[in-house]
Amino acid sequence: MRKKFMIKMASIGAVVLLAAGMAACGKKTEAVITTDGEEFSEPEKEYPTVAQSRAKKFSYNDLTVGKLEYLMTEDEVIKILGEPVTSYNANEKSTAAQTEVVKEKIYSYNELTLIFSEIKGKYVLTAAASVGENDTFSRGLKVGDSVDKIYDGYYRDADYMNHTYYSDDKTAVMGKMLYGSFTMDALENVKTKDKVEYGVINYNGASSLETAETYIVEFTYFEPPYQSGIAAVTDDFAQIAFDIDDKGIITAIRWYYYPEEESAE
Fold first, then answer.
1. What is the pTM of this model?
2. 54: Cβ–Cβ under 8 A, 6 or more apart, which residues?
3. Per-residue pLDDT tens digits of the chain, which is 265 residues long
């Protein structure tokens, strides 16, 4: 089954390109893999631990930009920002079987792009993306800030740099785990009834943080109750992502709220 977050990630990526002309298409997309499908066994660099974080983990409360909050209606947003520079409707199929249509409206305010999704017959704010330094996201973060401000603002383990995470088949190095012990790709095997909270440094196709031309700092959050009692990708969840350049500077910020979908069983 094609996972819904992959659909939305493609959609919002196109929106960011449309809104700001980002040169994201030049980013690496290939995974770093071993030969013959063998498990990755290259020795890793040992990093020193950092000070214990007292910051809170990412949650739904972080789905804000300026005075906007997730699930605001179009009228509420327009009352704050005024009419968008451009807007259009975008419908997409949400499953591999292409039986369910996701109805969306996209608003562009120059460097800030917003997506409204139809939930229970009403369009509400479900995503925001910016490449502009004037848009302030949760915890005071903006484009142009240092990546260290993310690590100070959001919780991370003291030894996160020594927590490498890999692809499911253990053949690709994906990045570092800021906190948490698994990603949403493992939900079918983990079968948890608890919150799912994790943060990662995504190498964006590189083999290490040192060799990455760009990378992404991402946080994900699920909370019960879940449709089946067990967390799944069809449940509602939230993500925030920060694009980082090779100088450690934030170049784009985007967040998403994914409404729950009916399980395809």
1. 0.84
2. none
3. 334 443 344 444 444 433 333 333 333 333 333 334 444 445 567 889 999 999 999 999 999 999 999 999 999 999 999 999 999 998 765 555 545 567 899 999 999 999 999 999 999 999 999 999 999 999 999 999 999 999 999 999 999 999 999 887 888 899 999 999 999 999 999 999 999 999 999 999 998 999 999 999 999 999 999 999 999 999 999 999 999 999 999 999 999 999 998 655 4
**Within-domain flag for 183:** yes
Dist CA 111 CA 88 (whole Å): 16
Reference 66, options 112, 32, 98, 11; nearest CA is 112
Give the number of domains in the chain.
1
Tell me the residue range of the domain where 37 lies. Answer: 4-258
Q: Does residue 263 lie in a domain region? A: no
Q: Tokens 């985007």 correspond to what residue?
A: 254
Structure tokens at 147: 């990546």
For residue 74, which phi and psi values (nearest 5 degrees)? -60, -45
Q: Per the domain annotation, does 148 fall within a domain?
A: yes
